[in-house]
Amino acid sequence: MATEVDIQSLVWALGILAVPVLTAIPLRFIWQLWIGGSHEESEYKTTVRQIIDSGRQLESYRNSLNDVARSLRITPSRQRLIEADILNPLSISHFLILPALIIFPLAFIVALPVMIVGLPVILLVEFLLIRQRILIKIMSFIERTMHWQIIHIPQAHRGSPAKERNYTEFSQHIEHFHKVPRGVFLGLFAYLIVHWIFKLENFGTEVILSSLLYIALLALVGVLSTAFETDLVFVDPSKGRLIPIDQWVESLLKPLVGVGLIFLLGRDVLEEARGGNAALFATTFLAILYGAAIVGIAYQWGYSSWRGRKVQRSFEQQVIETLDPLSYDLTRSKGRIEFIVRKPMAERLQEIEEIHTGQLTFEDLDSMPSSTPKEAPQNPL
Questions:
Q1: What is the CB neighbour count within 10 angstroms for residue 364?
Q2: Which of 53, 55, 73, 335 has the most beta carbons within 10 angstroms of its beta carbon?
Q3: How is 320-374 classified by DSSP, letter by letter?
Q4: 362-366 long-range contacts, Cβ below 8 Å, gap at least 24?
């Protein structure tokens, strides 16, 4: 006979689990009002999006953007914050983990062993995937097997910044914080998997096994995500699809981690409500959430800042040597979408690196002609 559910314990557990959600919703609303609530800020956002829609890099129009910001009485730091929010928008999942920054000292102490053990594992995965060229071999295999083609479409934030910015500015951290939730949910998924499969009586052993699984998942997904920040896109001609490679990886993870996380959480809460302490489990779950958030933040501010650019450059060079993809512009103007081939990826990267900050104006943007390739690209298959 099945044990009856302890309704009171279940209600307490659901109430505890609802705290981050109830906190995140108003925080997100406040953020949206603060980051672009005024007419001037909305107008500046429209100007920035005009450049993004053109398929050009923002730094090419830096002087013009600065003039617009000054005319709207927007300070430089505020200007950079608005641009960072457009390029890296924060969703509800980011505000779920925001309290981790408030309890950072305590959570950091709890998460420190995971960070210490995790760093060598991440470096090992990087060595195998990047230096041993396993990742580029996998990409080449996918391209041949799926009959897809890999191309390059540079994003709007590419190009050297106009000058060194103050690292203490919040705008400098939004890009890293934008990528944190993926690692956090991997940590929760690892804990729930271990809690479900092994049903260990010893909580310490359960945390250790969960941490080891989390380290392995974070190392693999983290290195892949870092390498794929290279503006590469899968093209599926048969279905008319453009799939950014980093989003393709995320689309593979979401059904497993996202749906699996909800299923496992619901199952474990009900099981604890029948024969355990559901409120204690919910409290432990939140502790794991914020601990995983600190590990994810440490990864983004640590490994990505330290090794990220080197990994990206190494993978870019391997892609050029092995696949030699073409670089395209994807633009929108007056309701018209244009997909234009420009030049080989190697030449385009060199061109972006040599961008002279602020050399273009909005008149150049309006008068920029469409171009078509002089000759068709070679068949990659």
A1: 14
A2: 55
A3: HHHT-PEEEEEEEETTEEEEEEEEEHHHHHHHHHT--TT---HHHHHHPPP---S
A4: 362/50, 362/61, 362/64, 365/50, 365/51, 365/54, 365/56, 365/61
Helix axes 171-178, 180-197, angle to 10 degrees: 30
Q: How far is CA 157 from the centre of its chain?
A: 14
Token pair 């099945």 in the structure block, residue: 2
10-28 pLDDT per residue, tens: 999 999 999 999 999 999 9
DSSP per-residue codes, 127-188: IIIIIT-HHHHHHHHHHHHHT-EEEE---TT-S--SS---TTSTHHHHHHHHTHHHHHHHHH
Tens of pLDDT, residues 293-323: 888 888 877 888 788 889 999 999 999 999 9
Q: pLDDT value at position 367? A: 57
| CA-based nearest residue to 44, from 77, 81, 79, 76 | 79
**Given its phi and psi angles, is residue 358 left (phi above 0), alpha (psi -120 to 50 degrees) or beta?**
left
Residues whose CB is less than 8 angstroms from the CB of residue 346 and which lie 6 or more positions away in sequence, other chains included = 320, 324
Strand partners, 339: 330
Beta-carbon contacts of 306 under 8 Å, excluding residues fewer than 6 positions away, are none
Q: Measured at the alpha carbon of residue 222, what is the angle toward residues 116 and 324, in degrees to the nearest 5?
A: 140
Residue 243 three-state SS: strand
pLDDT for res 167: 57
- List the structure tokens of 294: 């600190």
User: How far is CA 326 from each of CA 90, 272, 369, 379, rounded to the nearest angstrom?
Assistant: 31, 55, 20, 11
